[in-house]
Amino acid sequence: MPVARPDPLLMARGSYDGQAISVNHAFRYGLQADPSYAVPMAKARSTYACTECGAQQPRWLGRCPDCGEWNSLVEEVARAGPSGASVGPSAGSEKPVTLGTIEPDTLPRLESGVAELDRVLGGGWVPGSVSLLGGEPGVGKSTLALQAAAQLDARGVSTLYVSGEESPEQIRLRAERLGEIPEGVQVLGETGAENIVGHWESLAPDFVLIDSIQTLQTARVESAAGSVAQVRETAALLSSVAKRRSSALVLIGHVTKDGSLAGPRVLEHLVDVVLGLEGDREHTFRLLRAQKNRFGSTQEVGVFNMEAHGLSGVDNPSELFLAERSAGSPGSCIVPILEGTRPMLVEVQALIATAAYGVPRRTCMGIEDGRVALLLAVLDRRSDVDLLSRDVYVNVAGGVRVSEPAADLALCLAVASSRLDIPIAADVAVCGEVGLGGEVRRVARADLRISEAARLGFRRILVPSPVPEHLGDIDCELVPISNVAEAVAWLRATS
Ligand code: TYD
Ligand code: MG
Questions:
Q1: What sign has the CA pseudo-torsion 484, 485, 486, 491?
Q2: Ligand 1 mean position to 142 CA, how many Å?
Q3: Of 106, 210, 270, 353, which shows the fewest CB atoms inside 10 Å?
Q4: 371 to each of 42, 112, 409, how far by Cα in Å?
Q5: Is residue 97 one of the residues assigned to a domain?
Q6: Are residues 266 and 159 both part of a single domain?
Q7: Which of 306, 307, 311, 312 to mutate to test ligand 1, by most ligand atoms within 8 A of the CB atom?
Q8: Best of 117, 133, 143, 261 for a ligand 1 pocket test (most atoms within 8 Å of beta carbon)
Q9: Is the same domain home to 308 and 325?
Q10: Is residue 286 part of a domain?
């Protein structure tokens, strides 16, 4: 056994027994024979971070105690920082100031020129801010970022585009595809965070884009690129530069299939703005949402359409979703949903078929399976629509995901319409939440939904009963519905 000298540093912190940790390290690195190695090794602290939730543990565990994920802990070796610092403000540290005496930040926002993006940001990028743009691979993050960079360049904002994923030639090809080449954008193919900072200091750009944060590496930590420690350290390093130089920094990050940012949930605390680009690759529709925004509302969403020449903003999403609607066929129902404060009309489709054998199939796209199962059970029990031993297929047209309960009644009516083979008239829209008793409940911001439907030419709108008074002056017929049985009876009466 090596007789390691107790490390005064560790002893002073009082957290570990100096000798024990030295032996532990020496054992792990196979250095038992030479005690002189034990002391320097003791300074490199090892922690274990969960790749799912970012929680840190002092030792390896098979299961993360914080998020319950199995086999997600990876070792991180960080150099020991200065310790034993004396308590109390040091020279040059910040002093408290009274709120009333602080001058408001007067730096104007950098308008990206991509209208839908500016809407979500609340007017543009804030100088000195750090934003995170997340999304699944292939959803269009790099495309959106390059479009924003091109627009900023056209406005004379100096821009640095750092790509660890694509070569400058590939970026040039993409820019050609997007239209006019933004001549002035500085492109850097680099993954070393320290080198990036060096170029940043010498070029002094106002807008810096990192594509993606998971490809960067800093010498401060020893783990591989993309690990929790690397992502956290590089992001911290770059944001400190952004704050100091008052440049707007945008970090692109990949998200895992369950929607969380790969590994570093820690990043979400570090940045000022978290943007998520959503949409599935089979469809062209994309939604940009602010999950966090220190400089604006998180209620705004941006709607894009992925075209041959990049992402183009969609002013009227309802028209996009309803363009291909085949009105007059049973099983289709229009519902005004809300994304943030933006109403959109989407088509919910249902198809009921006789189950060929065994347990009936229930297949749902764009709407949660559990919600559909619940509504089918309610419809089966609370109305005269018999759904037992039927296959049910549910789809939301256009690749939209509907998570609002306000679409419940529309789904029930689409199912009933397909089962009874009665089409819902083309000028009908439906909104309302359905409870387990079959009762139809009120929805949030019914006024926004109804006026959007009326604007697009829907003349009859099924709404939860009673109709709120302030909606009475809208130029269309509001049909109050109090339960699913009533809705089915209404459908039968219209045929
Ligand atoms: P990209 O921005 O590379 O995605 P991410 O950076 O999020 O991984 O976009 C990839 C997809 O977008 C790709 O499959 C092709 C499509 N695309 C278009 O349809 N039109 C375009 O003009 C561009 C640039 C990409
Ligand atoms: Mg990309």
A1: positive
A2: 7
A3: 106
A4: 54, 39, 12
A5: no
A6: yes
A7: 306
A8: 143
A9: no
A10: yes
pTM of the model: 0.77
Rg of the chain over CA atoms, in angstroms?
Answer: 28
List, for residues 13-44, the tens digit of each pLDDT value.
Answer: 443 343 333 434 434 444 444 444 444 444 56
Q: How far is the CA of 310 from the centre of ligand 1 (A)?
A: 7
Residue nearest to atom 12 of ligand 1 (CA): 140
Give the total number of structural domains in the chain. 3
Q: Whose CA is nearest to atom 2 of ligand 1?
A: 140
Q: Which residues pair with 428 in a beta bridge?
A: 460
CATH number of the domain to which 289 belongs? 3.40.50.300
Structure confidence at residue 484 as a pLDDT band (50, 70, 90) = very high
**Tell me: the pLDDT tens digits for 76-113?**
776 555 555 567 777 778 888 888 888 776 668 888 88
Residue type at 317 in one-letter notation? P
User: Of residues 475 and 402, which shows the higher confidence score?
Assistant: 402
Ligand 1 neighbours (beta carbon < 6 A): 135, 137-143, 174, 177-178, 306, 308-310
- Using the mean position of ligand 1's atoms as its centre, give its distance from the Cα of residue 135 in Å: 12
Cβ 378 vs Cβ 344: under 8 Å: no
What order do you get walking across the sheet with 390-396 strand by strand?
A: 362-365, 390-396, 342-354, 332-339, 428-430, 460-464, 477-481
Q: Which domain holds residue 35?
A: 3-78
If you take atom 25 of ligand 1, which residue's CA is the nearest one?
310
Pairwise CA distance, residues 344 & 165, whole Å: 35
Give the alpha-carbon dihedral of 224, 227, 228, 233, to 10 degrees.
40
Is residue 197 within 8 A of residue 237, CB to CB? The reply is yes
283, 315, 347: which is the final residue of a domain?
315
Ligand 1 atom with the smallest distance to the CA of 146 is: 2
Closest residue by Cα to atom 1, ligand 1, is: 140
Residue 98 CA to ligand 1 center (angstroms) comes to 48
Buried (b) or exposed (e) across 18-27, using 16+ Cβ within 10 A? bbebbbbbbe
User: For residue 245, how far is its CA from the centre of ligand 2 (angstroms)?
Assistant: 26
Q: Report residue 123: phi and psi, to 5°.
A: 120, -5
